[in-house]
Each structure stands twice: as C-alpha cells, then as structure tokens.
Amino acid sequence: MEIRTDKFREKGFTLLELLLVLSIVSILILLIIPFGDRWIREQSEDEAIAVFISSVHQMQAYSIANEAHTTIKFRNSGKSYSLYAPNTTEIATIDFPPSMRFVSSSSLNEVAFHPNGHILKTGSIVFRTSRGDVRLAFQLEHGRVIKHDQ
C-alpha cells in the first residue's frame, strides 16, 4: 500500500521568511520617515509664504475697494501675523508653521497700504525657515512682491 504525501503537504511561509520580510520593511520605513518629515516641513513653509503674499494682495485690494488704510502686523515674536482694517479692526490672525518665523531685523516691521492701494513704505521682510532665510522685497507702491531665497 502506497501513501501519497502530496495531499498533505502544507503550503505557506516559514517563520524565518516572515521575519526576514518584516525586518526589511521596517528598515525601509526607518529610512523613508526622515525624508518625508523634511518634505512636509518644506512644503508647509512654502505654502505659508504663498499665503502671506496672498494676504498682502488681499489687504491691498481691500484698501482700494473700501478706500481705507490697511495694515499687516507681525505678532508673537514673529510666529504669526494679523490683518487690520480701519479703526484697528483685526480681520484675521494667521500662524506660521513651527519651523518658520519673521525676522525682526527686517527693514519692514509691518506692511501698510494707502486707500489708493499704494504701499506706504517699501522695503523687505525676512522669514527664517528650515532651509535658510527667505526675503520678500516690496517695491513700487503697488505692492509688488519679489521673493529671494538666501
């Protein structure tokens, strides 16, 4: 009488094979996480600068539409900024990402607009980011913003 062992042969992975795959996956994850964190931080800083420039244009448009003085002032040691309309009414306060802040030694400490939309004082604002300083230059009365990476 012959016994067939093919029927009873078990299929699957051994514990050693599973541990090997698990260790390779965990090593890859440990290598990828720091790059992902850095990329997320850099993207949030880029977005914050774009939002700040958009806020400048928004306040300029508000000045023209309402024929009123508007101002953007930095708060909390440069970690946030507020938008002000006439009679010092605060429209909004926006926080920068934790890795970014306004540098107080910038030539401008606030951005203010005349009711005709012209910027009251030209100059530059410097932001300290994880990749270095970023300077925004305000020129030519109309709120033109030029970004310089330093």
UniProtKB/TrEMBL annotation:
Keywords: Competence, Membrane, Transmembrane, Transmembrane helix. Coiled coil: none annotated. It comes from the Bacteria. This is Competence type IV pilus minor pilin ComGD. InterPro entries: ComGD, N_methyl_site, Pilin-like. It is found in: Cell surface. The chain crosses the membrane at residues 12-35. Signal peptide: none annotated. The gene is comGD. Pfam families: N_methyl.
